[in-house]
Amino acid sequence: MGRARRIPALLLAAGLALALPAQPALAQEQPATAGPVPPPLPPGTPVPGGDGPDLPYALKTACIRGHKDNIDIKNKPWGQTRLQFDSLHKFATGDGVKVAVIDTGVSRHPYLGNRLQGVGDFVKKEHKGLEDCDGHGTQVAGIIAASPPADSDIGFKGIAPRATILSVRQSSANYTATRPTTDGSRGEEVTAGNLTTLAQAVVLAANADADVINMSVNRCRPAANYVIDQGELALQAAVRYAVEQKDVVLVTSAGNTGEDNCPDSQNGFDPNNPTHIVTPPWFRDDVLSVAAMDRNGDPAPFSVQGPWVGVSAPGTDIISLDPSGDGLANLHIKADGAKNTIQGTSFAAPYVAGLAALIRERFPHLDARQVVERIKLTASHPAAPGGHDNLVGYGMINPVGALTAMIPAEQGVPPEESIDVEMTMPPAVPKDWTPMRVALIGAGGGVVLLLLTLFVVHTVRRNQTTRPEVRGQA
């Protein structure tokens, strides 16, 4: 029987993607950002290294625990129906593919079985990524690879139910530390996780032979007149290394409004003038970012838009693994007892990461960029120039299409080229007006005869009515 579990309020702002704190800017020789395009990665930028916490974090808020109310969760999530899981798994299941989940850790769960491996931990190194005090990472992993018993009547399953999960705990809202200062004053208390440790986690996962990496974590900042900071530069170097040197598909959530400086008023529709930058999605040359859709097929109102959005996937009314037990969860329970459905771009991204795992199983010859391109080309494109907009990117993913479509570029067929062809018009054909003239003359003559006839008839009748009466003589 599936059960909903209590998840602490720190995670509960509607189940949104984890937010990372800002970091100090680099020296002024680093180029300022301009518009939606990040500055080029400076030559010789080192690949970030590290496999443990940057500070001595300690548990401040108790880990999630089970909720006393048992909820029977047997229904199939709407996202599975929309993405046609029943047909999808005829083509691939993710068997033999490794998907790294860089998140709050992944708890052991019977629906993941022996396909869960701890790879690293940037919060408490000794846990190796297999403790999830926040619950977020376990739910993300479930959407990717959960596999309930075949003889159960549970409708939920992961999109790649035979994939292997590599867990890297990179952040936690429940663990804190005091950041030291240079002047000896009491430092700021911070939660675990920042862009530098995220960059290190990407490299660690890539070096652990991950085929796909899911990052349901974001940092949002104002876009205008901002110098790229150390954390952003480190992450830019890490994702470039993962894609180009280790051939890893990188998937990230697009971000959520109301989080870490991302405004509730959205990010604007002009692709050349976003008001806020969201990282990692900003590095769209190397990262595929995912927006959230609701069950009506509309963009979820909390999903941050931007020119870097790649595709979209289900992100509302989520069912996934109970991070504090052995069942399922479909609610977040706040400390005051309020219940919220699970939603966020955090939970849209793993659908796409799982799809990437299916593609890597079915088409093992494709490199990371070709996998991303296949996902984009087969998505349900919006009615926008180039089939792309700031809200949903190239549209809702189409997993069956992604596993069955023939992509010409993958077969070595060059793309069609436009040809400059001079437009020619046929010569003008003179109009022969003779039939029209004859018809008009005939019609005119008929009208004249008709009028003349009417005139004669009218005159005769008039003369008959005015002629003097002839009387007989006596």
UniProtKB/TrEMBL annotation:
InterPro entries: Peptidase_S8/S53_dom, Peptidase_S8/S53_dom_sf, Peptidase_S8_Asp-AS, Peptidase_S8_His-AS, Peptidase_S8_Ser-AS, Peptidase_S8_subtilisin-like, Peptidase_S8_subtilisin-rel, T7SS_pept_S8A_mycosin
MF terms in GO: peptidase activity
Biological process terms in GO annotation: proteolysis
Main subcellular location: membrane
Signal peptide (UniProt feature, chain positions): 1-27
PROSITE patterns: SUBTILASE, SUBTILASE_ASP, SUBTILASE_HIS, SUBTILASE_SER
UniProt keyword list: Cell membrane, Hydrolase, Membrane, Protease, Serine protease, Signal, Transmembrane, Transmembrane helix
Feature: compositional bias, Pro residues: 36-46
UniProt membrane topology term: Single-pass membrane protein
SUPFAM superfamilies for the chain: Subtilisin-like
Keyword Signal carried by entry: yes
Transmembrane segments: 438-457
Subcellular location: Cell membrane
Residue ranges of the region described as Disordered: 27-53
Catalytic residues, chain numbering: 103, 136, 346
Peptidase S8/S53 domain boundaries: 94-395
Family (UniProt): Belongs to the peptidase S8 family.
Protein's recorded name: Type VII secretion-associated serine protease mycosin
Native source organism of the sequence: Actinokineospora soli
Classification lineage: Bacteria, Bacillati, Actinomycetota, Actinomycetes, Pseudonocardiales
Gene, per the UniProt record: mycP
